[in-house]
Task: structure prediction
Amino acid sequence: MAPCARRPCHTCYTEQVKVAHEAVLARDPRTIVALYADRAAGLSAEEIAAKHNLPAPTVYRYLRSLHQPCGLRRPYDYRTAPPPDDAPVQIYWLGYVTACGRVVGQGNAATVVLAIHPHDEPHVQAMVADLVRGHPRVEFADSSLEGRQAYVRDPALAEVLSQWGLTGTLAAASVTLDYVPAALAFDFVRGYLEGSRRAPPFGGLRVLPSPPGRTTGLAMVGPLPLADSLRRVLGACGVGTGRLEPARASGLVILSFPPTAGAAILARAYARPVRSSPRAARFVARFASSRQGTG
Result:
């Protein structure tokens, strides 16, 4: 099949790269952390497989992944070691990908697929530069169902994201904040807000979001376990408790905050934006001005 022009249609692109689009089953990050802890304690792969009732090849795959270079650390790494210097960058991207990404394919064909805003292509390239080691491959294509798509073809990144709980569908994802350091929770939130196309202020197809001063509330859409985790973490940070309600999309819920709490969340999220989308420039400027006014 001859390739399309520079930006192929979604059907031709799928044929061209031959990605297996079967859904990646949800992985429980807690189980994987326990598996690595058992290995560190001296258990063999066979003993670990028997203990956790897993096939031995699955355990071997997890153990091999420890030696694959990736710019995003695993939940186990955050549990057992101090955060690296670039941890705010890593956790921002984790939030961004959690909002718009999924993992498709298996093994060397594993691919991270992002449903992005059409103007976020340079931002995705920045993510690839931060997280992918070696020679990255990223392509963009249009989908009749999902709009603009980014395909990041890096098995190591796909494996680490799946260990955080990313799957083949947003509704099935089990990404947990249990291994995100509390000090970095708002970096995750900033990434999640900017990656989401399902809710304001960055949802939709407008080039720029609504100005921060016009934000009447704040909403985040996602699977129930993640939304509930966000509600608990943000409540513990003292910005107010959000409300959960069903979303129109099957399997998703809306976590909403009233204007005062929403403004507090945005102020904390943009207190130190080590990474942010160019579309968020007005948010960065707004809250930078607020810090200068109170400094």
About this structure: Residues 1-25 have pLDDT under 50 and may be disordered. The two ends are 61 Å apart (CA to CA). The chain has twelve helices and seven strands.
